[in-house]
Design brief:
By secondary structure, this protein is α+β, with helices and mostly antiparallel strands. It has 2 domains: 82 residues, Probable tRNA modification gtpase trme, domain 1 (Gyrase A, domain 2, 2-Layer Sandwich); 67 residues, Alpha-Beta Plaits (2-Layer Sandwich). Helix content is 22%, strand content 36%. It contains 4 helices and 10 strands; from the N terminus they run ββαβββαββαβββα. A 5-stranded antiparallel beta sheet has the order 1-7-10-9-8. A 5-stranded antiparallel beta sheet has the order 3-4-5-2-6.
Protein backbone atom coordinates (compact mmCIF):
# COMPACT_ATOMS: atom_id res chain seq x y z
CA UNK A 1 0.00 0.00 0.00
CA UNK A 2 1.11 3.50 -0.66
CA UNK A 3 -1.63 5.42 1.16
CA UNK A 4 -0.15 8.00 3.54
CA UNK A 5 -1.21 7.79 7.16
CA UNK A 6 -0.67 10.19 10.05
CA UNK A 7 -0.90 9.21 13.69
CA UNK A 8 -0.52 11.83 16.39
CA UNK A 9 -1.09 12.41 20.07
CA UNK A 10 -2.81 15.79 20.05
CA UNK A 11 -2.35 18.64 22.48
CA UNK A 12 -5.01 18.69 25.20
CA UNK A 13 -8.11 20.79 24.59
CA UNK A 14 -10.72 21.59 27.21
CA UNK A 15 -12.87 18.50 27.74
CA UNK A 16 -15.99 18.38 29.89
CA UNK A 17 -18.21 15.51 30.89
CA UNK A 18 -21.84 16.49 31.18
CA UNK A 19 -24.45 14.39 32.89
CA UNK A 20 -28.12 15.21 32.57
CA UNK A 21 -30.39 13.72 35.19
CA UNK A 22 -33.21 16.18 34.64
CA UNK A 23 -34.97 17.40 31.51
CA UNK A 24 -32.79 16.58 28.47
CA UNK A 25 -35.13 18.53 26.17
CA UNK A 26 -34.70 21.64 28.34
CA UNK A 27 -30.89 21.31 28.17
CA UNK A 28 -31.10 20.90 24.40
CA UNK A 29 -33.29 23.99 24.21
CA UNK A 30 -30.75 26.05 26.14
CA UNK A 31 -27.90 24.64 24.01
CA UNK A 32 -29.84 25.37 20.84
CA UNK A 33 -29.16 21.87 19.51
CA UNK A 34 -29.95 18.23 20.16
CA UNK A 35 -27.47 16.13 22.12
CA UNK A 36 -26.20 13.15 20.10
CA UNK A 37 -28.04 9.87 20.51
CA UNK A 38 -26.34 6.61 21.55
CA UNK A 39 -23.23 5.85 19.49
CA UNK A 40 -23.20 9.27 17.81
CA UNK A 41 -21.27 12.56 17.93
CA UNK A 42 -21.73 16.01 16.44
CA UNK A 43 -20.04 19.34 16.05
CA UNK A 44 -21.78 22.37 17.53
CA UNK A 45 -20.08 25.70 16.88
CA UNK A 46 -16.47 25.06 17.97
CA UNK A 47 -17.34 22.11 20.24
CA UNK A 48 -17.40 18.38 19.55
CA UNK A 49 -20.15 16.63 21.52
CA UNK A 50 -19.87 12.86 21.93
CA UNK A 51 -22.40 10.48 23.45
CA UNK A 52 -20.53 8.59 26.17
CA UNK A 53 -23.15 6.54 27.99
CA UNK A 54 -26.83 7.00 28.83
CA UNK A 55 -27.40 10.63 29.84
CA UNK A 56 -23.64 11.37 29.72
CA UNK A 57 -21.76 13.23 26.97
CA UNK A 58 -18.18 14.41 26.50
CA UNK A 59 -17.75 17.91 25.10
CA UNK A 60 -14.39 18.87 23.55
CA UNK A 61 -13.69 22.57 23.21
CA UNK A 62 -16.58 23.48 25.48
CA UNK A 63 -17.68 27.06 25.99
CA UNK A 64 -17.81 28.75 29.37
CA UNK A 65 -21.62 28.91 29.20
CA UNK A 66 -21.98 25.10 29.10
CA UNK A 67 -22.90 25.03 32.79
CA UNK A 68 -25.60 27.64 32.12
CA UNK A 69 -27.12 25.42 29.44
CA UNK A 70 -27.23 22.46 31.79
CA UNK A 71 -28.53 24.56 34.72
CA UNK A 72 -30.30 22.52 37.38
CA UNK A 73 -30.88 19.58 35.03
CA UNK A 74 -27.38 18.13 35.41
CA UNK A 75 -23.72 18.93 35.89
CA UNK A 76 -20.58 19.64 33.90
CA UNK A 77 -17.19 18.44 35.12
CA UNK A 78 -13.82 19.35 33.61
CA UNK A 79 -12.16 16.06 32.62
CA UNK A 80 -9.41 17.53 30.42
CA UNK A 81 -6.68 15.61 32.26
CA UNK A 82 -8.55 12.29 32.22
CA UNK A 83 -8.09 11.55 28.50
CA UNK A 84 -5.51 11.86 25.77
CA UNK A 85 -6.75 12.32 22.22
CA UNK A 86 -4.95 10.59 19.37
CA UNK A 87 -5.77 11.21 15.73
CA UNK A 88 -5.39 8.90 12.76
CA UNK A 89 -5.66 10.59 9.37
CA UNK A 90 -5.57 8.65 6.11
CA UNK A 91 -7.68 6.52 3.85
CA UNK A 92 -6.65 3.26 5.56
CA UNK A 93 -7.55 4.17 9.15
CA UNK A 94 -10.22 1.44 9.23
CA UNK A 95 -7.72 -1.27 8.35
CA UNK A 96 -5.35 0.03 10.99
CA UNK A 97 -8.02 -0.14 13.71
CA UNK A 98 -8.70 -3.79 12.85
CA UNK A 99 -5.18 -4.73 13.99
CA UNK A 100 -5.36 -5.51 17.68
CA UNK A 101 -9.00 -4.35 17.84
CA UNK A 102 -12.11 -6.31 18.77
CA UNK A 103 -14.79 -4.69 16.63
CA UNK A 104 -15.64 -4.25 12.95
CA UNK A 105 -14.14 -0.89 11.96
CA UNK A 106 -14.79 -1.74 8.32
CA UNK A 107 -18.57 -1.63 8.70
CA UNK A 108 -20.00 1.07 6.42
CA UNK A 109 -22.36 2.06 9.25
CA UNK A 110 -19.34 3.17 11.33
CA UNK A 111 -18.82 6.48 9.59
CA UNK A 112 -18.63 10.20 10.32
CA UNK A 113 -20.22 11.24 13.61
CA UNK A 114 -20.16 7.70 15.04
CA UNK A 115 -18.71 6.76 18.45
CA UNK A 116 -17.53 3.31 19.52
CA UNK A 117 -16.01 2.07 22.74
CA UNK A 118 -13.65 -0.87 22.39
CA UNK A 119 -10.32 -2.38 23.34
CA UNK A 120 -7.34 -2.03 21.00
CA UNK A 121 -3.98 -3.59 21.81
CA UNK A 122 -5.31 -4.38 25.31
CA UNK A 123 -6.11 -0.68 25.90
CA UNK A 124 -9.50 0.98 26.50
CA UNK A 125 -10.36 3.32 23.62
CA UNK A 126 -13.30 5.45 22.52
CA UNK A 127 -13.30 6.21 18.81
CA UNK A 128 -14.95 9.27 17.26
CA UNK A 129 -15.14 9.25 13.46
CA UNK A 130 -14.61 12.85 12.37
CA UNK A 131 -14.85 12.33 8.60
CA UNK A 132 -14.12 9.74 5.91
CA UNK A 133 -10.35 10.00 6.50
CA UNK A 134 -10.08 10.96 10.19
CA UNK A 135 -10.77 9.25 13.48
CA UNK A 136 -10.00 10.50 16.99
CA UNK A 137 -9.26 8.05 19.79
CA UNK A 138 -9.68 8.87 23.47
CA UNK A 139 -7.73 6.84 26.00
CA UNK A 140 -6.30 7.43 29.48
CA UNK A 141 -3.10 9.53 29.27
CA UNK A 142 -0.93 6.71 30.59
CA UNK A 143 -1.85 4.63 27.52
CA UNK A 144 -1.48 7.27 24.79
CA UNK A 145 2.18 6.71 23.89
CA UNK A 146 1.74 2.93 23.82
CA UNK A 147 -1.32 3.19 21.57
CA UNK A 148 0.47 5.56 19.18
CA UNK A 149 3.45 3.17 19.07
CA UNK A 150 1.11 0.22 18.38
CA UNK A 151 -0.56 2.04 15.49
CA UNK A 152 2.75 3.06 13.90
CA UNK A 153 4.02 -0.52 14.13
CA UNK A 154 0.72 -1.83 12.76
CA UNK A 155 0.96 0.61 9.84
CA UNK A 156 4.39 -0.76 8.97
CA UNK A 157 2.97 -4.32 9.08
CA UNK A 158 0.41 -3.42 6.42
CA UNK A 159 2.96 -1.57 4.32
CA UNK A 160 1.88 1.98 5.10
CA UNK A 161 4.27 4.78 5.96
CA UNK A 162 2.95 6.41 9.12
CA UNK A 163 4.10 9.71 10.51
Amino acid sequence: MTEPLETAVLEPEPLAQIEVWGDVAAVEGRLGASLPKAGRSTTLNASRIMWWEPKVWLVRGFAADLADAIAEDGAAIDVTGAFSRLRITGAVWRELLMIGGVFDAESPTFGPDCIAGTVIHHLPVRLDVIDAHTVDAYTPPSYAAELAHHWRAAARRIGVAAG
